């Protein structure tokens, strides 16, 4: 896949930094942390000022829509404020899908059978529907399942929040107990029923029986917690779980054995630091075991899951790709967009183009690192901005959010939950992500879209083409409009028959606000303070 590099000065023209997206996070003791997953201690209750809104496909009275060659309020045809030119012959990355992880919530939320008053469904079922259903939710296609290291079984290590611990299927006597992690397994299977198509098994730490200190986190000052003699054992364990899941009909597609190897991980959650050399050794062990079992075409190994797009991650990529065997295997590098603004990502891509031009990027983890629950379009715009950056700067072949559900006072979960009453509260981030994830499906290809009147970032457009589930060709365009209502024309290379518009605002939950037949002189009205998706179908 040819990567088109957008040069730094042009890309940054007219852009504003995301600001609070890149603030340092606070740990459980409210002190600053450097690990991207170190989050604050969670409160048990909160207020939701907007209620439990659900997605709808029905246009509402007064909703923003399209003037498809029709007359405006003053009796004259509306003219476009700007024209978006779509060049479908200029292609970028083929896309694998959007997703989110099961940390640190599925092991308890998966057991919530009480009824959600707004939907009439059990809370756990409604959460699965909102995350993975393509009609009533946001249609995530990838589910990242946390393959725990066993800290919940031992109770050892400096992890004060029990939700940051996880069970292991491997027991102390060396046998497997497949009944472990029951609530998380329930949610995994429910996500598949609702529409998830791909499952990634990821590890924050090796299993506690394999680590040097017998813990699922590091001793302060140590560099590696996995003895090289245990590399094969670690690979065997993860592949045993993957094969067991596959036998149960779970579509495991990828295995990620290492998470953010540059961080220290001495407290707060399961985690393991690796040197670049150790990471290379672990990956070679996994690849050897994969081939030994004849599974090279069944599961993909992903790595290094670096915590930022900076030099600390570059060192791990260099180490991986300096190895002849690993260089031949890894054509996609997985990493996280924490602590990385637009300029940083652009510089990283220039470095990648220079040193490893044939490698693509998958963005496998991000959330906004800011304290305080937020139900507003402010954090919705921030997640949309991140998606836009990573799709257009990193040319990401997939985009996966961090915690899909969260119970604390933080801008993390797409859905908030309240432990005790066991209630749920969707927020604007859920629906803004849905403007992308419900419509840009696995197998779609990003194409060129240009704003002819404004700087490229004015509405931060992205465009993808692909086939709908019923085999019809589609063009999907997504816009981020932080300003006032605006009318746009969209000029694709190809001809389409119908359109549909879906809008997320403070009051609209990914609402279909207009639909009809396409005409040559149509203008499309983007609501103010909104994320808007326009879907064209042949």
Keywords for this entry:
single chain, 22 strands
List the SSEs and their pairings.
Blueprint: H1 8-12, E1 66-67, E2 82-94, E3 97-101, H2 106-109, H3 123-132, E4 142-146, H4 151-154, H5 182-194, E5 198-202, H6 231-247, E6 252-256, H7 276-292, E7 300-301, E8 304-306, H8 311-322, H9 324-329, E9 332-336, H10 342-355, E10 360-365, H11 377-392, E11 398-403, E12 405-406, E13 415-418, E14 423-426, H12 428-437, E15 445-451, E16 462-467, E17 473-481, E18 486-491, E19 498-504, E20 511-517, E21 523-526, E22 530-537
Parallel strand pairs: 2-18, 3-4, 3-11, 4-5, 5-6, 6-7, 8-9, 9-10, 12-13
Antiparallel strand pairs: 1-21, 2-15, 13-14, 15-16, 16-17, 17-22, 18-21, 19-20, 19-22
Helix pairs in contact: 3-5, 6-7, 7-8, 11-12
